[in-house]
Amino acid sequence: MKRVGIITVKTLVCGLIFFVGTILGGLVASAAGFPIPAMPAGTDTATLAGYLLLASLGIGGLLAYLASRLSGNFLLKWLTLSLFGWVVYSLSTYIEAAIYTTFSSASLYKVVMDLIAFLASSAAAVILFRARSPHNTRETLSRFSFLGWAWRIVLAWTAFPVIYLSFGKLVEPFVIDYYRQGLFELTAPGWEQIISAQMLRSLLFLGVCLAVITLWNRSRTELWIGCSVALYLLVGGFYMLQAYWFPVGFRMIHCLEMFADSITYIGLLTLCFMPKEARNVSQTAPLTMAKQN
What we know:
Layout: H1 2-31, H2 45-67, H3 74-100, H4 108-128, H5 137-141, H6 146-180, H7 191-215, H8 220-242, H9 248-273, H10 276-292
Helix pairs in contact: 1-2, 1-4, 2-4, 2-8, 3-4, 3-7, 3-8, 6-7, 6-9, 7-9, 8-9
C-alpha cells in the first residue's frame, strides 16, 4: 500500500511539472516572438486551464509509465521520452491542424510551449522512475541486416498513411459534414495535402516510436498494448479531453478512429522491429549471468 502511494505521488509530480512547464513554455514562446493563439469560440480561460491540468496529469502518468520500462542511461531515456512526447503530441498535431483547421492554435507558439513542458516532465519521470537494465546499442543494431532494417523502415513509413486513410474512410460519413461546412473552424483539405502531411507525420512517428522500441525492456505484448495506448492518448485522446466545445459524438468517433490507428500501427512496428528472440535473450541474460557467477 505504501509503495502504491509513493508511485502515485511521483506520478502526480510528473504531471504537475508538465503543467508548470506549459506555463514556462508559454513565456518562452512569447519572448521568442510567437503570438499567443486566440481561444476557441465559446470557451473561457478557467475551463481550458482546468482541462489542461487534467491532460497534464495524464501526460505525466504516461511519461512515468514509459520511463519505468525503458533501458539506458539518463540522457538516452530523457531524450527518447521528450522527443516521443513532443513529436507525437505537439509537432505532428501542428502538421495535422495546419490542414484540417483554420483555428489559430495551429501555431508554433504551442509547439515551443509543449517542448519546454516535455523536457521538464520527462526529466522528472526518468529520475523518479528508474529502470535497472542497461541498453546495448550493438545488440539492437545486430537484430537485422542492413537490408532487413531497410525494408522494415520503408514498410513502416508507408504503412501509417494507409492505416490512417483506411480508418478515416470508415468514420468519414459520420464527421465529414463538420469539415465541409466549416463548423468549429474545421476545413476539408485536398488529397495532396492529406497524403503529404501523413507521409511527414509517418516519418516522425517512425523515428520516435523506433527509439522507444529499441529501449523497451518488457515483453512484446506489453510494448504493443502500452505504446498503442501512449500513441493514441498523445495523438488525440488528451486533445479530445480538452476540446470540450466539440460535440460529444464527434469526439467519440474520432477517439475510436485514433485508437484503431494506433493499435494497428504499433502492432505492425512491434512485429517488424521487436522479434521474439530479442526479448527472450534480454530476459534470460540476467539469469544466465547469475548462474555463471
